[in-house]
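Example 431, ligand L-homoserine.
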Amino acid sequence: MKPVKVGICGLGTVGGGTFNVLKRNADEISRRAGRRIVVEQIGARRDNPDCDTKGTQISRDIFDVASNPEIDIVVELIGGYDVARELVMTAIENGKHVVTANKALIAVHGNEIFEAAQKKNVMVAFESAVAGGIPVIKAIREGLAANQINWLAGIINGTGNFILTEMRDKGRDFADVLAEAQALGYAEADPTFDVEGIDAAHKLTILASIAFGIPLQFDKAYTEGISQITPEDVQYAEELGYRIKHLGVSRRTEQGVELRVHPTLIPAQALLANVNGVMNAVLVDGDAVGQTLYYGAGAGAEPTASAVVADIVDVVRTLTADRDNRVPHLAFQPGQLSDLPVLPIEQTETAYYLRMQAAEQPGVLAMVTKILGDQGINIEAIIQKETSEEQVPVIILTQRVQEQKMNDAIAQIEALDAINGAVTRIRVEQL
Ligand code: HSE
């Protein structure tokens, strides 16, 4: 059979990894795909010193790839929103299948892209957009197709997890670890996407859509990053038997779907608490299977290339398949997406870790606990540290409560004369 011709747009960390894996494992890959897969053209502004591209056409204009009549599959690895969207839409318009690692693109423009792809009868595959090399899209979309998914929770940003791990284990400085993650090619072009949770929210948006059969709604995701986490919170969490991880959590409730990304205390013995460094993991709870956990490298050249190439193989296999029997982009048939709303964060429910600076005087704890009690918030644990200062740190763990009630309680606690400054709040999940 004729080889399938691929055009790679972007030859950075992931593009370079994809080129090298396709070349190195060409024989093994064609035994799996049933056809040879050839990189016909690369569109990239710069060469990658790690890639030997001799013999491959290179264009400095990525749009040459999208309009090259020889090319069957356009692999979009340039990242970002606007140019990537234009490139992918052009490729689709030209009848090409698309493989992309671009979570921002899928989370924000995915609904429109899939609709265009449907019309042109082409595939858009995006396994590498979530959790790097872990085949979690395939697992949820296909392997868990029998289940009603109840919830999923994951560590889905390698850079953030790397920073938190190094801070906790080695007491390293935030900025220092971030610079190392950038040098290793883990971080986004704009690293605030990693540390402020935007990258994780992109990925969670995609996971929630395929888990619950809802359209992509990135604008409804609640997003909080790791930049406010202090070494004291890491330390107090440890004393309470917890670790702080940056989690994406999506849960189906009767009222709607929770879609939230934030630092979270989780029990130290939980499997997710022991996912360290750049590794990612996603825990999925399905009604039939129970909990399943997917773990692996969440960033980096070849781990991400592993998922990109798997998508290319999938597309190659479907080239000859009946178009009505392809796996739907968002797991559910396009006409079968549900209108279950995404809940505002105030309507979601978790337990909480609270830290506040209290005046060292009688009755302060009683006032704080009364406010919590009046909101129906049960206290799980309290730590008050001995100090020679006039202010004493008080740490409280609560049971689960609706976020709005906690907001009201925190506002009242912060208004007390005996409480100095803002109350730090970190959500808690027992998983
Ligand atoms: N910046 C991302 C991360 C890369 O650190 O997880 C993989 O999506």
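Summary: The first strand starts at residue 4 and ends at 9.
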